[in-house]
Predict the structure.
Amino acid sequence: MELEQLLNSLPEYAKDLKLNMGGVMRQPELTGQQAWGAAVCSAIASRNYQLVESIVPEAAKHLNEQALFAAKAAAAVMGMNNIFYRFRHLSTNPKYGTMPARLRMQVIGKHGSDPVDFELWCLTVSAINGCGACVDSHEHVLREKGVSEETVLAAVRIASTVHAIAAILDAEPVTAPTA
C-alpha cells in the first residue's frame, strides 16, 4: 500500500499522527536524504510490516541505493547494539562495562553513505529502542561533527511519529469496533 493510502487509513483518533508525518518529513533542519533515511530505519525499528512496506518504496524515490542500504543497515546494527549496550548500562555489575562486545559491527564503518546521516539514523533507532547509552553516544558524535540540536531533534520527531503510527497499525485490528 502506498504511504499516503496507509496514512489515510489511520483511524480518526490518530489523525494527529497522519498530520505530523507530513510535517516531520519536510522539516528544514533535515535534508531529504536524512529525513527519508530516518523514516526507513524508524519503520524497520518499529517492526510493523505494513509501515515498512509503505515507507521503503516511497523513500526509494528520495534516496540513492547506497543511502537506502545504509538506513536499513543502521536499523539492523542498532537493533543488535541497542540490546547489548542497554544491558550493559542497566546492569549494576561493573565488570560488563570492561568486557568486549565481540559482536560484528563492520557496517558502521562500511555503509557507504554520508557518515553524518548514518550517525543520525543510528540515533533515531536508538531512540526508538530506548538505549540511553547509544542515544548519548550518537548524539555526542553528531554534536562533535557540528550537527545542531535542532537537527537531532528533527530526526527524533520522525522516529517518534513513525513509531506511533506503527503502534496504531499493530493495535487497530484489536481495538477497531466489530459489527
In short: The domain at 3-175 is CATH 1.20.1290.10 (AhpD-like).
